[in-house]
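Good morning N.,

You mentioned wanting to compare the apo and holo forms, so I went ahead and generated the holo version with pyridoxal-5'-phosphate. This is what I fed in:
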Amino acid sequence: MTHRISVELATTKRPKPDVSKIGFGSCFTDHMFMMDYDADKGWHSPQILPYQPIMMDPAAKVFHYGQTIFEGLKAYRTADGRILLFRPQQNLKRLNRSNERMSIPDVDEELALEALRQLVLVDQDWIPREEGTSLYIRPYVFATEPLLGVAPSRQYKFMIIMSPVGSYYAEGIHPVRIHVESEYVRAVAGGVGQAKTAGNYAAGLKAQEKASEQGYSQVLWLDGVHRKYIEEVGSMNVFFRIGDKVVTPELNGSILAGITRDSVIQMLGSWGVEVEQRRLSIEELFEAQEQGRLVEAFGTGTAAVISPVGELNWENRKIIIGEGRTGELSARLYNELTGIQRGELADPFGWVLELKGTVSATS
Amino acid sequence: MTHRISVELATTKRPKPDVSKIGFGSCFTDHMFMMDYDADKGWHSPQILPYQPIMMDPAAKVFHYGQTIFEGLKAYRTADGRILLFRPQQNLKRLNRSNERMSIPDVDEELALEALRQLVLVDQDWIPREEGTSLYIRPYVFATEPLLGVAPSRQYKFMIIMSPVGSYYAEGIHPVRIHVESEYVRAVAGGVGQAKTAGNYAAGLKAQEKASEQGYSQVLWLDGVHRKYIEEVGSMNVFFRIGDKVVTPELNGSILAGITRDSVIQMLGSWGVEVEQRRLSIEELFEAQEQGRLVEAFGTGTAAVISPVGELNWENRKIIIGEGRTGELSARLYNELTGIQRGELADPFGWVLELKGTVSATS
Ligand SMILES: Cc1ncc(COP(=O)(O)O)c(C=O)c1O
Ligand SMILES: Cc1ncc(COP(=O)(O)O)c(C=O)c1O
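and this is what came out, ligand included:
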């Protein structure tokens, strides 16, 4: 099935940045994808057009009631020039799960995948080639109806924008120091923590500022009910190697079901490493450390892939994990995952999708 | 101190709507207020200009990470033609409390009040005169920096738009039927429930849809930790008259500190009615009802002022309060409050602010 996405190409192309010098998500490609929704017509007018400002009514619901969701994935350029996406279908499934939770109408996943494909192909010169770099892709949906009543919007935009990103580990993979937050809460069961919706990120800013002031780069959230079970870190899920098992918080309704998390669980399983998905209290973790059983810890997410955790600080108790060095599993997972993502290693799980073809302007 | 707000007047004016026929917040006045913030310059360029779409970069942070807050208040036209605002300084204080929680820079409250004043005066023909009508005013701030990193924005817009609204009680004040939500949660202590931020409203949509399907007009939220203490209703705080006392949930960090709530507490106090601000469980309420001690219930908020509650449905247990009729205190509070707001009754608390003068275009 072909989807009729109209394509208008940019007449001038912007210079490509030096990806080693730009921050995350600060520079955008020449084109973007946009599709509109009206309650009467459904989703309509899918189009690729030059990256440009959009006109918004000041009363658009997104500004007032935050009805919006997003996704994040990456396109990679292989050494032999092919273009790969990593499990994009999973991102689109999650996009619709987020939509469902936020009362936003479903997006056709097949059409969305085709939009991703065409947009990446149109801007394929923007996929950086240097080791560790990639093209970050941001699909998102937001409410545009100009109406101040608190009710689901009758109009939306689905957009995709893309940004070349440098290596997360320009100076080599190195463990992060993390602040365990006991005052602020990100999300609670029954809320929207499992949806990739804007409000969850705004809700986390204050604790993140507090952590930075204290010299920590990230926040580890605890659950909002007992204030003791481990949830997730900023934009990552977390894993702990305790004794001969790996433990990660279960999908309890308040954390995001990370696609890297799922990939890590599958990969560890294929290596014969037992992974427990369960409630894990911060006390249990500190105890395991005292008993010498906390071997390593790492975060998982699209941006960093695997981010080893070298230190945790919880109410002025500090633990150094694995002597502050990158653990064995972290390193192996990082190498295997990025190897598959860049087409350098076999893909036994069928995770990568190669994008082929060219896209030309419709008339 | 005069603030230099530049003023550009609309060359054509839109026809005024029939307020008896329009829904809440669907029609906007001829002008809007806008002011920009940059990390380098601070807040700058305050201006009143014709109501119009704004240009937004698709990467603007508000779309992705929801850093935004808002306020809501009303301007009233008195029978003798004066223009009154109700406690606008309280809205501006709360605006800055919300800003603080969401890591948004403070707005100068004096300048914001002057902006409110000039904007209302410019569009004063839009304040409807019919009984029960008013001009709804929506100040709001949102993050505009085009950057996908999760961190406080370095650019914002502060805007004010206004919408004439019809009478909430066109067919006379009548009690609402409310669904008590036990599955979904709006906010939890440590989160952002006490801030008037977009994400809280998006988070509430799903439960609201569920309530509507079951024939209820509003959702009463329970706390996210114990799932038993009463929080608030949609866009209202709640009060219960139990025996000879009035009880309302305390400001516990997860509910909004409503300005109508505060006004009601002061007014009841001045009448010699004891008001308790404390934790109140839904069980206690149902018990009080069984014992015949639950005399009346009402919500308080800018939109409805006082909204009597005639029925509560909690896990298939239903209670009818005050025989489903408007209670004595509800009626008296409604009359006194709206009387003060419309300048028909004396204002012993110094709550109303009269706006005077005219505003002309700057050049
Ligand atoms: C809150 C949160 N948790 C976890 C993740 C990791 O998810 P994924 O592995 O799909 O990138 C992300 C980032 O997407 C996130 O925003
Ligand atoms: C969540 C919430 N609670 C309570 C209120 C009532 O507050 P106020 O009386 O200031 O309008 C509102 C509306 O502003 C609200 O949005």
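Chain B has a mean pLDDT of 96.

Happy to go through it together on a call whenever suits you.

Best,
F.
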